Amino acid sequence: MLAIERRNEILGKLQNDKRVIVSELSDYYEVSEETIRRDLEKLEKDGYVTKSYGGAILNENINLEMPFNVRKNTNVVGKQRIAALLTELVNDGDSLMLDSSSTAVFIAKALKETKRNLTIITNSIEIIIELFDAQEWRVLSTGGLAQEGSFALVGPQTDQMLSAYHVSKAIISCKGFDIHNGITDSNELHARNKQTMLNRTEQGILAVDKSKFGKTAFALISRLDNISIIVTDEKPEEKWLRLFEEYRIKCIWP
Amino acid sequence: MLAIERRNEILGKLQNDKRVIVSELSDYYEVSEETIRRDLEKLEKDGYVTKSYGGAILNENINLEMPFNVRKNTNVVGKQRIAALLTELVNDGDSLMLDSSSTAVFIAKALKETKRNLTIITNSIEIIIELFDAQEWRVLSTGGLAQEGSFALVGPQTDQMLSAYHVSKAIISCKGFDIHNGITDSNELHARNKQTMLNRTEQGILAVDKSKFGKTAFALISRLDNISIIVTDEKPEEKWLRLFEEYRIKCIWP
DNA sequence: AAACTATGTTAGCTATTGAACGTCGAAATG
DNA sequence: CATTTCGACGTTCAATAGCTAACATAGTTT
Q1: What is the pLDDT of residues B75-111, one digit of tens each?
Q2: In strand C, which positions have an atom below 7 A from any protein CB?
Q3: Is the pTM for the entire model greater than 0.90?
Q4: Which residue of chain B has the CA closest to A18?
Q5: Which among B2, B128, B145 has the least Cβ separation from residue A140?
């Protein structure tokens, strides 16, 4: 059994029983108590539980149903790479906009571990939840219509709220990214929100894995002009790099 | 049973009964009185209770918030009763505002099972998540600052968004409810948001369990004038009913 | 091969609890 | 109003369970 499997099972047990006992888990999984303690330690660090003498209890304010069931996360490694690169672009004290892409969730997690005193504005419910316990941060939710399926807030209310702020960096993702058609998304409301984010910042950062290169989706977000930096998970081909140079876009990969 | 569980339960009992007795707790949990004293000592150190000879009483300094998991799980039955009563006041197609109280979460759940085609505006992240899959409903999130501990969005942004709408019913809860001091809450930002909700509706509904009657918390939400209906979990005493009559407030209990 | 990860093992340390006992507080009694 | 009395309190001590930290090992990744 993999460690991560065991941890997930422990989380499952916590959802049922609200608490776990170190000695019981150690018996059940036939690993040493130390291993279980290390598991709980990790879960505590991730904010899921509170340890106590002899065991741990579930943190009720983390809505556990969500992170596991909802996302059919693809290319997790790529997204984590992108997130790691992004932490180097962000400084303590920055103000950021994050969109409601799954990449942005990874970015939020990575930033939480490394940065202090950030101000985040986002329309992603997942990110809001992820950052609820971020000490010293200011986390703002745009309002908006709760859109089934994407865990995002969308619509004109979202745009209006975004327009009330100006941030040093806006980090967005997209469904498609093409020389002729610019940056595109499959959902018009999402596209509009991302557009607004780019309009309210000096530095637009596109965080997008390589599979999106050369793709075009339904709704236009922006031409390439509004993008300052592209962060991706693999080195793009020469034609892309030439294009980026032409537009004076900095491109970063691991 | 883990020590932290016992302490949380004691806090829960304190929320209901306002006081605890050392000897009773010792019997109930089958630990020595010393252990209970040490528990109370810790709770006192954390500011939740004041010890006294033979037991301890809850600090009525309601400004100090209970841990979320304790607050959420107290008087579940009362909250469910209130939620059930409220479904009878709401019609299919209504537009509602719901605040970020734990009672409101129960109300949202009850409505989801019984009503069609509602429009909900709320600043509660829990409710947003709960209603993400509500078919045919329109669920709007107010924006706002994500406030640690309460799972709510607060601040001027929240007010601004609320002010952009007008609904048939606003359903709010509170920490204290008193003849002279009106409806009060421990948190000023929450109080302001609830106030705004009452201003944006024809029918203000106060959903509040009986333990709040006669209490006064720090921040004023509203005088009684703005309330049309009070829904509670037990029949209030005569003096309250007379008061409600005077203000032409309808009061409902199971 | 080196670096890293997951796990086990151990030794020393710490936290939690209950028992014992002298002191203190509250309420009844004179 | 002073005294008495009994339960409650705090402190200390000891026992035990649990914890931390350091090191060892094996398997995996780079």
Answers
A1: 888 999 999 999 999 999 999 999 999 899 999 999 9
A2: 5-10, 15-20, 25-26
A3: no
A4: B5
A5: B145
